[in-house]
Specification:
Strand content: under 5%
Distance between the termini: 163 Å
Order of helices and strands: HH
Number of helices: 2
Length: 142
């Protein structure tokens, strides 16, 4: 509302309070007020129709702006985690192969040591056996 309209409304209110109000003027004021209320109702219904669409578009744009980079980051982290899992599986396989190789080396070492000791036992057994009488040929006396 502009200042002139507000001032006229105040004057009419003062006139009505003073008992000098003109019924024709009051009717015109009421009619203008009704027209303005109808205009306000039309503007409100227009806003009611457009605000949800604008809010939806704003939310969609905001989500697109904020969520897409986050989705890219999540995809990147997922890719890196998959790569880490593959590397860990490969390392686990290498460790298992290395463990089996060490067990095979240990088995070979145990076999070598036990065969060495078996050889030592055989030699000691030969040394400890009572000497068998050796039959010697008589020496010729020259």
């Amino acid at each position: 509302m502009d200042e002139l309209t507000l001032e006229r409304a105040k004057q009419r209110i003062e006139q009505a309070a003073a008992g000098r109000a003109d019924p024709a003027l009051l009717g015109a004021v009421v009619e203008r007020a009704r027209a303005q209320v109808e205009e306000l109702a039309a503007a409100t219904s227009g806003l009611e129709a457009s605000i949800p669409a604008q809010v939806e578009a704003g939310i969609r744009d905001g989500l697109r702006t904020e969520v897409l980079p986050v989705a890219r980051h999540i995809a990147e982290v997922r890719g890196l985690l998959n790569q880490v899992v593959r590397r860990l599986e490969r390392i686990e396989g290498e460790l298992a192969a290395e463990r089996h190789a060490r067990v095979d080396d240990l088995a070979l070492l145990v076999e070598l040591i036990s065969s060495g000791w078996r050889g030592v036992d055989a030699r000691l057994e030969r040394l400890e056996r009572p000497a068998e009488p050796v039959v010697r040929a008589p020496r010729a006396v020259a």
